[in-house]
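Researcher: Good morning. I'm working through a list of sequences from a screen, and I'd like to move beyond sequence-only analysis. For each chain I'm collecting a predicted structure so we can compare shapes side by side. This is the next one on the list. No need for commentary yet; just the structure.
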Amino acid sequence: MMVPRLVVSLATLVLLSAHAGEAQQASPRRVAVATRAIARGATLGIGDLEYRDSTLASTFAPVADSSPVAAGWVTRRVIAAGEVLRAPAVEPPSAVSANQQVAVEWTDQNIRLTMRGIATRNAPMGSRASVRMESGRRLETTVVGAGRVRID
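Model: Good morning. Structure tokens for this chain:
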């Protein structure tokens, strides 16, 4: 009794995944592509990338016409000419560096408090960063600017 249900469920799953793959391949996506070979740790310049339409069938491919990779991003490994630029091979530049003193901000309606802390790792704008306070306590914060984090 369970075997027919299992067979029908598996067949349905296979058909749905095949249909999803076809739909994903059919729509071109705008992706950033390296125009030349780029070394690890290099900052991308305007001439280092171009945007092309691609039919990448990957969940990592950016949504059409909204590739977040741009000049100023940093490579985390060697990039070959013609390679699609995407995380984790490239990352946005760090707004906060490890062991850097940062301004820790907390706001509640009309009250604003700013303290000093030490970032425990590199973090780009908008990402989460751990900060060690003078008391030794660690706080999870959000990077809001160069050398500035916010307690949420």
